[in-house]
Design brief:
Blueprint: E1 2-6, H1 10-22, E2 26-31, H2 34-43, E3 48-51, H3 61-70, E4 76-80, E5 96-98, H4 103-116
Parallel strand pairs: 1-2, 1-3, 3-4, 4-5
């Protein structure tokens, strides 16, 4: 499965990337803001995405999530320390993983995303 990571904290992005690849998935790119995320969604041919709520340009992860779902048909999950900022229904997210998280939790989330991407 090809995974897009939308995360503005470099160390967290590296950690997520390592966990995704440890679960034998491919990371197609890491976006730090709304513009980068939408650009990668258009060009990277990803199957799913892991999205933080608060990015470098504010609480734009929700906008990213809506675009992924409604414009690109890409399933996504939130990986965030700001779950309380999510709207009701979580924009159609497959799941929400609160930071800090562990390898087992990210593995379960990737499994759910894999099911949704089919």
């Amino acid at each position: 499965m090809k995974v897009l990571i939308v995360e503005d904290e470099p160390f967290i992005a590296l950690d997520i990337k390592a966990l995704v690849t440890a679960h034998r998935h491919e990371v197609v790119g890491v976006a730090e803001n709304l513009s980068q995320a939408l650009n990668l969604a258009r060009t990277a041919n990803c199957d799913c995405a892991l999205v933080d709520v608060k990015l470098k340009d504010g609480f734009t992860g929700i906008q990213v999530a809506r675009a992924l779902r409604y414009e690109f048909g890409i399933p996504f999950a939130f990986v965030t320390g700001n779950a309380e900022q999510l709207p009701p229904g979580q924009c159609g997210a497959v799941g929400v993983l609160e930071k800090p998280f562990n390898e087992m939790q990210i593995g379960s989330l990737l499994m759910a995303l894999s099911q949704a991407a089919r």
